[in-house]
Write a structure and sequence with these properties.
The chain is an alpha/beta fold. It is 40% helix and 15% strand. The strands form two sheets. The chain has a seven-stranded parallel beta sheet with strand order 6-5-4-1-2-3-13, sandwiched between helices. It has a six-stranded parallel beta sheet with strand order 9-8-7-10-11-12, with helices on both faces. The protein is globular. 46% of the residues are buried.
Length: 384
Amino acid sequence: MSIRVLVVTVVHDPEDARIRHREIRALLDAGNAVTYAAPFTAYGRTPPPAVRGIDLPRARGKRRLRAVRAARRVVRRESTGHDVVLVHDPELTLALAGRLPGRPVRVWDVHEDTAAALGMRGWLPAPLRRPAGWAIRGLEAWADRRLHLLLAEDAYAQRFTRDHPIVPNSTLVPEREPSPPGVDRVVYLGRLTVPRGALELLALGRRLAGTGVRVELIGPADPDCAEAVGEAHRSGWVYHHGFVPNTQALSMLDGALAGLSLLHDEPNYAHSRPTKIMEYMAHGIPVISTPNPVSVEALQRYDCGVVVPFADTDAVANAAADAVLALRDDAERRLALAAAGRAAALRDLDWRQDGRRFAATLERWAGRTADRSATPELSTEQAG
């Protein structure tokens, strides 16, 4: 017996890999029906095939209330026709408060340590960050008691008193063997922001100019670095592909010399393994990473990459450049790191297994008792 799931976000890009390409895909593969409420127009996206889409405003910076209110209206309107409401943003837990018509199972997918991430929110004045952190912890305590939670990392469990299932940010590991790592390009996959190392990536591009190794950036650039990324692209220091659909973006990893993850030393990154590291491993390329603890643990456990120290922008770029050139000149080590990462991804990090468990968890919570009205039409609607 299939279930019907309403998936809601006002913050994430509707093409978010965890939401769109892993969780929704796993629900569809399991034979369930999905309605996806997300800011399609704001991001210039369209709903996935076989999914009913509802367009929402985007929550961004201080402008969040309108989007949350619109999402609340959608949740109340749609809850009768769905067995599960799955939200992906902390503020959307407010849309789940109180009794909903039809009494669907209410689920929050916890992607990050939001309170720890407040220090990176430039739009939030510094004096408000501590009170906002307390508010987030209070919201988490309420959600712990009232909602079903899914946690993206084992380390998130310490923030909650109840036991909640882990739905890790693993990746769809290609079944075909990827091309071996080459010698002429290194890649970064993901959103570009200053805390995620955008300026270090640009400095690395300048450092590698003239070496025959190009830095390729795959993903959109946030306002905090977009101008600098554009200038570096025009100068030829890096090649910025911009947003690329997930499946195509992943295929662009094959044959690269290495994959880059130069995160800053931020509390929100301390316990979150970057999905890009698993994607690099799955596509058979070595990883070069700064030493946030979970990344170091993965690289050491699987012997699949090189760690460069936290430092200022130029020092990180210099260390990363040295690592890139060392791997370029040492084919045996480059191939060994790539093979070890690929084998580990096949063994431990394949979303196909985690996705089946994810879908089964929602089905179990819903009691597999879907007995609603007709299947929703596969269209995009405008939220009222």
